[in-house]
Amino acid sequence: MAVGQVRYSIPEEMVIESASPGARYSLESASDPDVAMNTIQTYKLNPSDNFKLNVDGRKIPELVLEKPLDREKMPVHNLILTAVDGGDPVRSGTSEITVIVLDINDNAPQFEKQVYETNVSEKATPGTEILHVKATDADEGVNGEIEYFFAEQTSDLILSLFAIESSTGTIVVRGNLDHETNSLHRFDITAKDKGNPQLDGHCGIEIKILDINDNNPEIIVTSLTSPVPEDSAVGTVIALISAKDPDSGDNGKVLLTLSPKSLFKLNPSLNGMPINYTSSTKFR
Ligand SMILES: [Ca+2]
Ligand SMILES: [Ca+2]
Ligand SMILES: [Ca+2]
Ligand SMILES: [Ca+2]
């Protein structure tokens, strides 16, 4: 009885092509020099989820793919074909069949998170690393090699402010960030494998730009009575002023003060700060 080893390389199933179910792989028939009942009567295959055995009229066994192969689940299938003769005593021989499943690019890169969020100071300089994104791809070789890019349709503003290292997924500052102009940036990153055809995956990025106190307060005089008549009564409103500071929180709060020797007083008002003339001393 033949004892041998057979090796097959079969692509994992993708669509209705390559090794789709029903594909047949002819196995050399085992040879048995005996004749009649003593020659090979049956073949058996050890249990397999993906293959079954078919023996045609000429008693040539063939391996039939019953279920798609998935290299990512099982890259190698070891099958044992047993040939049994009809003699007495029964004799049998086995062939080891090794099926190597060839990779097809059937997995898209997948990011570890759907959305990555982080904060960066508006004073961060170009080259500062902000964030790492990471995607994985279950395929083999180039089918599983990933590169990172900004998604198509990413705005010119984003492209001017941030950069991504395609091989590492590191996002760095590229331009000058400004909390006062944009305190939050949202964009998408695409991971592409190098298979043919190429598959891709996406994730979202949200970068908050943290404020620093980089703006001086500005005083705005909205109305002013000038000159002021010297007999103005104490309490006369002579100017409405306001102040603004585009920074956020305490960085944008403004405290207005007048020099202590001033003849004027600051009073809060709804729409600005009226300066009241409060001194009884007339001024010239
Ligand atoms: Ca694959
Ligand atoms: Ca892939
Ligand atoms: Ca400020
Ligand atoms: Ca600021």
From TrEMBL:
<protein>
    <recommendedName>
        <fullName>Cadherin domain-containing protein</fullName>
    </recommendedName>
</protein>
<dbReference type="InterPro" id="IPR020894">
    <property type="entry name" value="Cadherin_CS"/>
</dbReference>
<dbReference type="GO" id="GO:0005886">
    <property type="term" value="C:plasma membrane"/>
</dbReference>
<dbReference type="InterPro" id="IPR002126">
    <property type="entry name" value="Cadherin-like_dom"/>
</dbReference>
<feature type="domain" description="Cadherin">
    <location>
        <begin position="112"/>
        <end position="219"/>
    </location>
</feature>
<keyword id="KW-0325">Glycoprotein</keyword>
<keyword id="KW-0732">Signal</keyword>
<keyword id="KW-0106">Calcium</keyword>
<dbReference type="GO" id="GO:0007156">
    <property type="term" value="P:homophilic cell adhesion via plasma membrane adhesion molecules"/>
</dbReference>
<dbReference type="InterPro" id="IPR015919">
    <property type="entry name" value="Cadherin-like_sf"/>
</dbReference>
<keyword id="KW-0812">Transmembrane</keyword>
<keyword id="KW-0677">Repeat</keyword>
<dbReference type="GO" id="GO:0009653">
    <property type="term" value="P:anatomical structure morphogenesis"/>
</dbReference>
<dbReference type="Pfam" id="PF00028">
    <property type="entry name" value="Cadherin"/>
</dbReference>
<keyword id="KW-0472">Membrane</keyword>
<keyword id="KW-1133">Transmembrane helix</keyword>
<dbReference type="GO" id="GO:0005509">
    <property type="term" value="F:calcium ion binding"/>
</dbReference>
<feature type="domain" description="Cadherin">
    <location>
        <begin position="15"/>
        <end position="111"/>
    </location>
</feature>
<dbReference type="InterPro" id="IPR050174">
    <property type="entry name" value="Protocadherin/Cadherin-CA"/>
</dbReference>
<keyword id="KW-0130">Cell adhesion</keyword>
<keyword id="KW-1003">Cell membrane</keyword>
